[in-house]
Amino acid sequence: MSFILYSILSGTFAALASVFAKLFTDTRTVLITRYFCDLLNHFQNFQFLNCKEIERNDDNTSENIIYLIGIIRIICFLLISMCNALMWTFFTKALNKSSSSIRVTVLNSATNFCMTAIMGNIIFNETLSLQWWFGANLIILGTFLVISKKGSNKDDQKLKEKVQ
Fold first, then answer.
1. What are the domain boundaries of the chain?
2. What global pTM score does this model have?
3. Model confidence over 56-111: pLDDT tens digits?
């Protein structure tokens, strides 16, 4: 595989780690817990949890709901760790495959930037303005310029000349 795929995977897992970190610390964890509670009750065909209690979140909230929210937070924390481990694994593989660490780093960062914004929009309903899209296109254009073959061949030749 080429360094490009590994760099893109690395950036994607970095963005996923950010999403799970936000879910771990954010109040939206309650919404995810409500979703899983409804899902569990739907497939179990009985109400072992009162899902409406989740959003109330006061002193009368049952222990089952508190445990479920805790379990969701623990799962998010584990997913942060897993995504970070995968991100570093793919980033290291990309560095090994590429002749230039700059190309890997730029592609990784651009992927992370774009994927974080897209996932933030989809999962958290964060708005992406026209100015953001313009800036993202400039970043993507710059990324293509940095990783293009023309520039890298000249850099490789200069490096070979310095070594000799």
1. 3-163
2. 0.74
3. 656 566 777 778 788 888 999 999 999 999 999 999 999 999 988 888 998 999 99
Query: What are the C-alpha distances in Å from 107 to residues 16, 90, 153, 159, 161?
Result: 16, 12, 18, 21, 26
- Write out the chain in H/E/C secondary structure: CCHHHHHHHHHHHHHHHHHHHHHHHCCCHHHHHHHHHHHHHHHHCCCCCCCHHHHHCCCCCCHHHHHHHHHHHHHHHHHHHHHHHHHHHHHHHHHHHCCCHHHHHHHHHHHHHHHHHHHHHHHHCCCCCHHHHHHHHHHHHHHHHHHCHHHHHHHHHHHHHHHC
- Counting other chains too, the contacts that 143-148 makes at CB distance below 8 Å and 24 or more residues apart are 143/106, 143/107, 143/110, 146/102, 146/103, 146/106, 146/107, 147/4, 147/103, 147/106, 147/107
Q: What's the rounded Cα separation, in Å, for the pair 151 and 139?
A: 17
Cβ-proximal residues to 132 (8 Å cutoff; 6+ apart), any chain? 117
